[in-house]
Amino acid sequence: VCTGCTHNQILRKKWFPSKRLVPIESRIQMYRTLGEGGCNVIADERPYVTETVFRKNIPNYTGLYATGTNLFSKEPLAIVTREDDTEWSTFCNWILHTLMAAEKYNITQTTATSPDNNFPTTPITQFGQEFNNMSLYAIQAVGNYGEIYERNLERLIPRDGLDFINTQGDTGLIYSFPTGDLTSIGPGPTKGGSLEAIIEQGYLVCGIGANKATAGFGEYDSTNQVWSGM
Length: 230
Hints:
- By secondary structure, the protein is mainly alpha-helical.
- It is built from seven helices and two strands.
- A two-stranded antiparallel ribbon has the order 1-2.
- A hairpin with a 4-residue loop joins strand 1 and strand 2 (about 225-230).
- Helix 4 (about 85-105) crosses helix 5.
- The mean pLDDT is about 80.
């Protein structure tokens, strides 16, 4: 287990005596230690202990590998935005909840603009007229949350339990929040803020992890050699 992480603290406190743990400084060192027989088990976030990720990082390992199903901690992950640009943070939250709500209402990438779907169609006026239909544009571009998960994570972490949208109170903590009043008109883009810069340049620049051995929402088009996605 990596030193300085919460996994280390949880394992020491609840499950194993310190003498049974092998402290490791980095993930790649953790993989190497397991592959070389220096330890029998590794503990980390689910995306980093899958067999695909392990064998990608230690290609010479030919032994058996199995991933456990028990979760020893539940630490929520979230998107992070700058504290001094609340409008951009709000914009990102709208998109995130839109993608989760789309799955709840069974609106997919192919049906986003269909007149027969039951997705709320009230324009979002908070960010200016050109963003009125940003919800439908987002779904049309990348699909709903379930489609994104299927496309990017399912091969590494089969979706279950906490990864499902909570619609009946019987799954995890992923909720589709009520949208509230969509008819009010908020302020325009903050002067010098992220939205203003994006509008001026005409496109959004995102950082995407280039290591496809690790779970993520970036997609690589090998034909055009271009990264895209959430």
